[in-house]
């Protein structure tokens, strides 16, 4: 197996290309790659509808590692400020697409377009996405012929592709109103974004695991002492889940509904060939028990009022409207994952594992899990055509994915001097200028900190995102298979988190991620769960080892290693 450092990572285009530590820290599978065209497509649609001058990102896959480069509809012309501004204004007046974007930006801000998109998601989009996902969930791969199973795989990939596209069409629905709030409150009060974080605390209950289906199950358990005793008996987790789901009562019905909705969410996010929740039923039980406590964070009215009082009285009504929009739309950020792509990932994996079992039984591949490295066409060739020469290659692909990560490849490639520069917001019409400034805040809040941590340092630095201090034992998680090793009260050290991690968050004493910004998932859930949190702690997964005793200071962004 060739080590990635011995491979050529040539820039696929002009400018700088960077690895994606938040979403794809490992080599991606062919199943994942088959869906990837939907990401830039969804971003372009969403940006265009809102009138952004961004086109989202371009994606390149080099030796199975994902590299991203930002794309802009309009970039700064050459010359000094006066020359560049004159050239851009002339260009904009002659470019109908730019004129359209200016008009859409004004329409977006005037009509509060995110409100209609939130309502559409609530009334139509979410039910359509989950309806198709649940229809595929209810199918039983074990009962299918080989041809039916291959067709099921093709259907699952198609729907997963659509869910990922829709996910990215919705990118601006939660982020734009939030950043408009931060933009205006910052201008009114001089507060930093960190000082404004209380405004959004508790605005996304689903980020802390407070889901309607779980609430319904907990309400059933409240009046069913025998089911609650069975749930907390400590017996085999799989047997407990199966036994409760078979009950012919309100608890059985509620649990079945809950499992149907969440059971196939992948444990660590966006790679569909990673394990899903039902493969670790003990985590599901812990999640339900945590739900029984109803210990979810709430907004602090006094903290919000103290910020409101700093706003000029003539702007307080506008503040109230901005705050309501930001809080109302905040949940869409994680709902897109939990109801769009993540459950569909597990449904696809379930079919691939069934195909792998059949192929392994026939001696066509070496191990069931190796089928997760096949493409859809290769699954067809193996199951229907009896192809037997891919066993060793699939094995090698699997080992490559298990062994290597973005820690083993160049973090950035390309020439920074070729990077296009954005348009100065001051050159834009009023609405586009305001939109652009808000998007600048969004970029800043989602950008990782880049603290240099010395090789032998005992204090690592990152960006503090959730206050408090916690001392405990570290658990370094680099792979989905390691998530269930996390013990109660440990400090999770990982590259990044996403909504799929919510299943294990009740175990945490503190959270430290190597990647991520103030608005990353890790930052949001640390605040929602009320645990100390630090993001963007460079090389944390390299410098910290499982078993190390640490102090995580969510006020200063420091991780202190207590090594003898």
Describe the structure.
It is a single chain. With 564 residues, the protein is an alpha+beta fold. Among the domains are: 211-293, no CATH class; 459-561, Phosphohistidine domain (Glucose Oxidase, domain 1, 3-Layer(bba) Sandwich). Helices cover 48% and strands 11% of the residues. It contains 20 helices and twelve strands. The protein has helices spanning 30-33, 38-50, 81-94, 96-111, 113-138, 146-169, 172-189, 212-222, 225-231, 237-245, 250-262, 281-293, 301-308, 316-330, 332-361, 376-383, 391-403, 430-446, 521-529, 540-543, and strands at 16-19, 54-62, 65-72, 412-414, 459-461, 463-466, 469-477, 490-494, 508-513, 533-535, 549-553, 558-561. Strands 5-12-11-7-8-9-10-6 form an eight-stranded mixed sheet, covered by helices on one side. It has a four-stranded antiparallel sheet with strand order 2-3-1-4. Helix 4 (96-111) packs across helix 18 (430-446) and helix 6 (146-169) runs antiparallel to helix 16. It is globular, with a radius of gyration of 24 Å. The relative contact order is 0.14.
Features:
alpha+beta; Glucose Oxidase, domain 1; single chain; 564 residues
């Amino acid at each position: 197996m060739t080590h990635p450092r011995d491979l050529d990572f040539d820039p696929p285009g002009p400018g700088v290309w960077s690895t994606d530590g938040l979403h794809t820290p490992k080599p991606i599978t062919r199943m994942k790659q088959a869906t990837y065209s939907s990401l830039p497509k969804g971003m372009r649609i969403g940006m265009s509808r809102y009138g952004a001058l961004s086109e989202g990102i371009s994606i390149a896959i080099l030796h199975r590692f994902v590299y991203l480069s930002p794309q802009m509809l309009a970039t700064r012309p050459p010359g000094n400020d006066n020359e560049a501004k004159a050239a851009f204004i002339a260009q904009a007046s002659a470019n109908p697409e730019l004129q359209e974007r200016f008009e859409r930006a004004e329409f977006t801000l005037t009509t509060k377009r995110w409100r209609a998109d939130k309502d559409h998601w609530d009334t139509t989009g979410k039910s359509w996405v989950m309806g198709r996902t649940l229809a595929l969930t209810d199918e039983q791969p074990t009962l299918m012929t080989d041809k039916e199973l291959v067709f099921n795989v093709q259907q699952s990939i198609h729907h997963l592709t659509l869910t990922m596209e829709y996910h990215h069409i919705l990118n601006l629905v939660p982020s734009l109103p939030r950043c408009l709030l931060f933009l205006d409150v910052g201008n009114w009060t001089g507060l930093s974004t960190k000082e404004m974080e209380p405004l959004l605390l508790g605005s996304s209950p689903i980020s802390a695991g407070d889901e309607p289906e779980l609430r319904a199950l907990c309400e059933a358990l409240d009046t069913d002492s025998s089911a609650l005793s069975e749930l907390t008996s400590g017996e085999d987790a799989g047997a407990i889940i199966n036994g409760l789901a078979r009950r012919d009562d309100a608890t059985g019905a509620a649990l079945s509904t809950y499992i149907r909705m969440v059971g196939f969410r992948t444990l660590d996010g966006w790679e569909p060939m990673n394990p899903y929740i039902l493969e670790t039923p003990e985590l599901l039980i812990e999640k339900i028990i945590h739900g029984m406590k109803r210990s979810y964070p709430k907004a602090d009215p006094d903290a919000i009022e103290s910020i409101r009082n700093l706003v000029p009285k003539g702007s307080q009504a506008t503040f109230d409207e901005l705050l309501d929009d930001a809080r109302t739309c905040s949940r869409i950020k994680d709902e897109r994952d939990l109801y769009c792509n993540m459950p569909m990932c597990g449904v696809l994996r379930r079919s691939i594992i069934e195909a792998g079992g059949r192929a392994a039984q026939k001696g066509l591949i070496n191990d069931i899990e190796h089928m997760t490295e096949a493409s859809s066409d290769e699954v067809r060739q193996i199951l229907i055509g009896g192809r037997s020469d891919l066993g060793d290659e699939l094995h090698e692909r699997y080992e490559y994915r298990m062994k290597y990560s973005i820690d083993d490849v160049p973090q950035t490639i390309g020439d920074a001097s070729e990077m296009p520069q954005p348009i100065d917001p001051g050159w834009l019409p009023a609405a586009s200028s305001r939109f652009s400034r808000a998007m600048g805040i969004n970029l800043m809040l989602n950008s990782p900190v880049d603290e240099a941590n010395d090789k032998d340092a005992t204090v690592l630095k990152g960006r503090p995102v959730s206050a408090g201090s916690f001392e405990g034992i570290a658990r370094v998680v680099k792979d989905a298979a390691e998530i269930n090793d996390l013990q109660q009260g440990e400090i999770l050290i990982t590259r990044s988190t996403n909504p799929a991690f919510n299943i294990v968050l009740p175990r945490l004493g503190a959270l430290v991620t190597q990647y991520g910004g103030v608005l990353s998932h890790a930052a949001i859930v640390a605040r929602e769960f009320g645990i100390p949190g630090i993001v963007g702690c460079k090389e944390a997964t390299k410098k910290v080892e499982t078993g190390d005793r640490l102090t995580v200071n969510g006020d200063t962004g420091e991780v202190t290693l207590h090594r003898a």
